[in-house]
Design brief:
Blueprint: H1 10-25, H2 30-37, H3 45-57, H4 59-69, H5 76-91, H6 96-107, H7 116-128, H8 130-137, H9 141-145, H10 149-158, H11 163-170, E1 176-180, H12 187-196, E2 201-205, E3 208-211, E4 228-230, H13 237-242, E5 249-252, H14 259-267, E6 271-276, H15 279-292, E7 297-300, E8 315-321, H16 335-339, H17 344-361, E9 363-373, H18 382-390, E10 395-398, E11 406-408, E12 417-424
Parallel strand pairs: 5-6, 5-8, 6-7, 8-9
Antiparallel strand pairs: 1-3, 1-4, 2-3, 9-12, 10-12, 11-12
């Protein structure tokens, strides 16, 4: 019988990350897979997550390498282990000997260890042929940019001057940005508390503070007491753009996990209803509000099914943060690059149109609806809004940050987001 892997070893972390990657390649969401692995890999939770994320960011490149190294790359966990090891070799080439050794050790936990020799051979062959393989990868579009070809083509058409920088950003690590709870503490005072705790950070304006280096939330001063939340600076635009005023009735129609809901309540006193169709994700809204000392009505419902949740009243403000391809947040959700298909863009666009149609019916005359996505594809953004506005005589587009719409491209300070503001004419 093969002895169990030491729980604090790199081999154990590689094994856990390989299981996560294998789950994604089988079609599962990365967060869900990691949640299932939380208990068996509790001692290596951070390492497993970091390895899995890094592997999926580089998947297009390392999968290309496997195709060159093997006539028929294996499926399942063996393939995922090899991909994870190749990703680690790219990140820490100076530790090549240790990484190969620990990958072989991790392979001992698969199918009674019968893949140990294969793992050793493939990885050592990669090290011998590395320069040759890197040169070949530079000529392959998916390997070079580490995104699917259809994704690359769409970005190239939509952003002829920026597509390369967008793809590079999508392969990097995202910034860790905080949103200070203005009801509890001023942003400048919280910045001082971070510095006192030895955490370097800088203000991005408003309540947004970017950490120089990501840290566990437990390391953030006053996090458990609700002084701050983790939220991308681009996502923090939503509550500001919606322009809710005290006493208004506000709907956050696709609210989970509750970041924008909480920000709206931190900004001003409103009567807020938060909807989400996913019960498990909706529970996180309640958890976040509780930690921050905020309250809202939370319902589990598909916002398109008005009969399931509407009480007959209308709303002064509606936030439609609609489901999308997540193409603007690929560095935070690298599994999206490989789970999505080209046809998903049109599928999401249809659902977004249905949501807009439903929510327009519950918006009060003179009210404002903020349409938001974390997508970069025009079919989900500008084209969607242009088509919607053209069909309705009571829809007027309002300026957003001095323009007809706001498309944020991912960079070192924020992810990719789209915003459009619509007013319902009386």
């Amino acid at each position: 019988m093969t002895p169990p892997l030491a729980e604090t070893s790199l081999a154990h972390a590689l094994h856990g990350a390989a299981q996560a990657v294998a789950g994604v390649l089988a079609g599962r969401n990365l967060n869900e897979v990691l949640a299932d692995l939380r208990q068996p890999f509790a001692a290596q939770r951070g390492a497993v997550q970091d390895l899995a994320y890094s592997t999926l960011r580089r998947f297009g490149r390392d999968d290309f390498f496997l195709a060159q190294l093997m006539a028929r790359p294996p499926d399942g966990k063996v393939r995922a282990l090899l991909l994870t090891a190749l990703s680690r070799l790219a990140a820490r080439p100076e530790e090549a000997h240790t990484i190969v050794d620990q990958a072989v050790e991790a392979a001992s936990a698969l199918a009674g260890g019968k893949y140990k020799a294969l793992t050793n051979g493939v990885l050592r062959n990669f090290l011998r042929r590395r320069a040759e393989l890197e040169a070949a990868a530079a000529q392959d579009e998916t390997a070079r940019w580490q995104h699917p070809r259809w994704w690359i083509s769409r970005l190239r058409r939509a952003y002829p001057a920026d597509w390369q920088s967008i793809l590079d950003a999508g392969n990097g690590r995202p910034p860790m940005t905080l949103r200070v709870n203005r009801r509890r503490i001023a942003a400048a005072d919280y910045l001082a508390r971070l510095e006192a705790a030895g955490l370097q950070a800088r203000s991005l304006g408003g309540e947004a503070i970017r950490l120089e280096r990501p840290v566990p939330v437990d390391a953030l001063p006053g996090f458990a007491e609700g002084l701050a939340s983790v939220q991308d600076a681009g996502a923090q635009r939503a509550a500001i753009l919606l322009d809710a005023r005290p006493g208004m009735r506000v709907l956050d129609a696709c609210a989970a996990p509750g970041g924008k809901t909480a920000h709206l309540l931190e900004q001003t006193d409103v009567d807020l209803l938060a909807l989400d169709a996913d019960a498990r994700r909706a529970a996180r809204i309640e958890d976040n509000l509780s930690r921050l000392g905020l309250s809202a009505q939370v319902k589990i419902a598909d916002c398109r099914d008005l009969d399931a949740w509407r009480d007959g009243r209308v709303f002064d403000r509606v936030l439609a943060d609609v489901p999308c391809t997540a193409s603007g947040v690929a560095r935070r959700h690298p599994d999206a690059k490989w789970l999505r298909r080209d046809g998903d863009v049109a599928r999401f666009a249809r659902k977004q149109g249905e949501i807009l149609d439903a929510l327009w019916r519950v918006l009060a005359p003179g009210g404002k609806l903020l349409y938001a996505t974390c997508s970069l594809f025009p079919e989900e953004n500008g084209r969607q809004i242009a088509a919607f506005a053209a069909q309705r005589g009571d829809c007027m587009r309002l300026p957003v940050a001095g323009a007809s719409e706001l498309q944020l491209l991912p960079n070192e300070e924020h992810d990719g987001f789209y915003y459009a503001l619509l007013e319902k004419q009386a």
